[in-house]
Design a protein that fits this description.
208 residues, mainly alpha, 2 domains, globular
């Protein structure tokens, strides 16, 4: 049990290495003082452009994948959980670290990119359906937050139909993403949520 606790702690610390805040230090900014104040890829794109955002997303996805891979590598047959369960738990802890990073005053991002990175290693079959739902929602609505919440919720029926043993992870991930995006959902209900009009390709085609 000790090695499991240690690898989960390592995953949290790995997740605490926020891409936007690390890259921001290199250029002398704290992205939490810009735009929405969120230390994530969307705010990085809005405030610093696609190059900066690409670096942020690469780091955030990469650390999620690395945390899940760490879980798989240290797993031993005598462990009380499966290798996949440990990889999923490491993914969740990395996302928690991203959202509440110990190295940056516990003010980070929302954890979606880190979760996706972990899924690529822990549950790769879930990545394509999740991305398809996210992209479809984004292209039709223009709301990044809504697309992210719905994509995470997709894990629940996917687990029920394909991987029942991962239902705990699907539920935890969906609830976590809904919680970290609660502000987006509140603004959406109030009609004040930011919308990327330029990406609403499906809406444009339906009008033409």
């Amino acid at each position: 049990m000790l090695f499991i606790a240690l690898v989960l702690l390592a995953s949290y610390l790995l997740g605490s290495l926020s891409g936007s805040l690390l890259l921001g230090r290199l250029v002398g900014i704290d992205i939490r003082t810009r735009g929405s104040g969120n230390a994530g890829g969307t705010n990085a794109f809005r405030t610093r452009g696609w190059r900066f955002a690409l670096g942020v997303v690469s780091i955030d996805i990469g650390k999620g994948a690395l945390a899940a891979l760490l879980g798989r590598l240290v797993w031993v047959p005598s462990a009380p959980i499966t290798a996949q369960d440990l990889a999923c738990a490491c993914t969740l802890l990395a996302a928690v670290g991203h959202t509440w990073p110990v190295f940056f005053g516990f003010r980070g991002g929302k954890g979606a990119g880190t979760l996706v990175g972990g899924l690529c290693v822990a549950w790769p079959l879930a990545v394509l359906p999740l991305f398809a739902v996210w992209l479809l929602c984004l292209l039709s609505s223009g709301y990044v937050g809504l697309a992210t919440v719905l994509a995470a919720a997709t894990l629940l029926p996917l687990a029920l139909l394909v991987e029942p043993a991962l239902l705990w992870f699907a539920l935890a991930a969906a609830v976590f993403i809904a919680f970290t995006h609660r502000g987006n959902l509140a603004r959406l209900a109030a009609g004040t949520e930011y919308r990327f009009e330029r990406v609403r390709l499906l809406r444009r085609r339906s009008r033409s």
